[in-house]
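To whoever picks this up:

The nightly regression suite flagged Iron-containing alcohol dehydrogenase as changed. Nothing in the input moved, so I suspect the structure step. Input below, exactly as stored in the fixture:
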Amino acid sequence: MIPRNQLDLRKFVAPEFICGRGALELAGRYARNFGMKQVLLVTDRGVRAAGWAGAVADSLTEAGVSFTVFDAISPNPRSRQVMVGAEVYVAEECNGIITVGGGSPMDCAKGIGIAGSSRRDILGFEGIDRVSVPTPPLICIPTTAGSSADVSQFAIITDETRKRKVAIVSKMIVPDISLLDPEPLTTMPRELTVDTGMDTLSHAVEAYVSNASSPMTDVHALEAIRLLTSALPAAIAEPENLDLRFSTLLASLHAGLAFSNASLGAVHAMAHSLGGAYDLSHGRCNALLLEHVMAANYGAASDRYDRIGAIIGGGETTPAERVAAFRRTLGITETLAAAGVREDAIPALAAAAYADPCMVTNPHNLTCEEIERIYDDAL
Ligand SMILES: [Fe+2]
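Regenerated output under the current build:
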């Protein structure tokens, strides 16, 4: 591992954001402030059915801003869906994007912004700082507490032909403003609450042990772990409790600020590989991998993992065991095999994970064989 020095140069990028009850209703006002005349409202059918896209639409109408809805988006958004959205963006002569939903609509909206303004295939922007054209103004309204696409400089798009996830990392796709309202979280089903919560925890843990962490990202990562581990089980028990939902949203915000600037690690690299090959829930993939990656990485960042373990608590157990116990209390008790992953797929999964940009900041330089062993442990 590269020794950290707090004097190392680091930058910290964050969007403007407003948190609190009623934030969603500010969409129209901010669209007008950004000079949006014709908005592409990017969402998905579930969020539409729950009424949250309609609430944003009402706010736009009240502010006198026209919009076109684009909701043809699946979980793990595909590059083809991004390109269809970009065509609609251009055909409708939009000059701004508002996205309301979880990580999938938000990532897709970021992709549409890039593809719509550059008129190029979204898959050509894979990697770090490859977006050179300015993207349209973007307002994000998250309806889950996990992906943190609403504050991050990341967009994850699935290349459906090669069955792999492509990470696009660029300051250009940091939203212009995010409106963080706890109310939309109250309609999340239990499983989505659990999975997105484990995504938050994975973001915070990976950012805290990342080779690119800094004193600024550390503060946010540790606060995210504290908030999430105390609020998530209670929020699951009381899904309509706005205070608890807001705590999980704040945890996601802190984790997002941490990982957007410190990047991630092997958990996400391996989850991207799994999600691309098997179209599994991103948060669930992280949940099934996190403790195994922590155990494999422990020697490279033991002080940091011990600090994480101390926050979670759990007697005479290792930090990885404490995360495993936490996961079980949320009802996640299966393994990768139960999710449909086959042993003979592991070498290909490991090769894709090894090449993922998130692997660069993992505290331990994992070999392909070590990655295979971690998949095997999680099987
Ligand atoms: Fe994630």
